[in-house]
Amino acid sequence: MVTVVENKATYEEIMQKAKRIGEAAELEAIEADRNSTISPRIADIIREEGIHRLILPKEFGYPQLDWRTFVDMVSTVGYHNLSASWLTYFFSVHNSWVCYYPRHIRDEVINQGGFVADVFAPIGKVEPIEDGYIVSGKYNFVSGINYCDWVGVGAIMKFEDNDEPERVGILLKVSDLEVVKTWDSLGLRGSGSNTLIVDKVFVKPDAILRFSKIIEKSQPPYEEFDQDYLYYNTPFYPGFYVGFAAMAVGGAERVLDEFEKHTAGRVRFSGINEKDSPTSQRVLSELKLEMLSAKSLLNEYIAMMETDKGGPYEGAKYKAIRAKIIDKSTQIGVKSLLTLGGHALLKGHPVELFTRDLMAIATHITSLYEDGILGYGRHLFGVNTNIQG
């Protein structure tokens, strides 16, 4: 299946937005790496360009994106700066789960206009009380929380209509919580993925999002939903996670361009131009083919999302493809760094910076290579993996 961009004018407009964000973030890459967060200026540019509005029902008046446009937007920012791509992706995608809340909550969050973060690790403690619940928990790795007004946090709960405990998301206002600046990582340092303390915060029952209901049916729980909405006719988790692969491809493509440029200008102590070396020639050839393979897998992933509408789908296959794309992209960074040698190891060299960021993407729980590959192998032999994507 060939992916078709439905609106060429919209596509070009979105790519310009992505380029503006990426280029601005690239200029501040070293500062963001040092400060463990993007600057307020970059957050403001993302807000000005309306990125957090892109994945909304059409009734809010914003463009309806197709999957290729969304993926290319994330990749384009990633070509310039992966931390900014990480947040561009998250600030756009997080409104998708907000849209599964009842209308009054959805409209409150969207009309307020703030960024939304999430950390759905089910570690929260939920205590039922009269008219609602008390929520507590300590959540690490909350990307972009420095600039967010809302956050979804994870927990396990029991419901009367289900004998088994369920994973849930709980919507909270960041102003009711404590943000602790703990982010000090190998890569993606500009993402500002700090720690969040939730200390006995009251929530009403309608602030609880049951993920099992989204898995059962992609559509939201109200009538007359927007059938053109990007996530309503695609399995939710594969769609929600596609940005990890998209940004990895963008970052790997930048590494390849940097490798070729620095190799062409590199002269060994012997006086030999490195571009004439069979070693570097072979490496460039190999990495170009790996890049082509990663992009082909991403195209297959998009085609699957466009096909899998309203019925069973292979969640384990999605996860394996995504893990393979990210692994290939990361290895492009590592091989480029090792082949370029010591000068590329210096802090702030683009290959050093992008390779660290690619490695950080690969450590995300949804990107872990061994998990993805093993899960798909088990699925192929008929084992129920319960992998949703």
TrEMBL record:
GO terms for biological process: fatty acid beta-oxidation using acyl-CoA dehydrogenase. GO terms for molecular function: acyl-CoA dehydrogenase activity; flavin adenine dinucleotide binding; monooxygenase activity. GO terms for cellular component: cytoplasm. Residues 243-365 form the Acyl-CoA dehydrogenase C-terminal domain. Pfam families: Acyl-CoA_dh_2. Keywords: Monooxygenase, Oxidoreductase. It comes from the Bacteria. This is 3-hydroxy-9,10-secoandrosta-1,3,5(10)-triene-9, 17-dione monooxygenase.
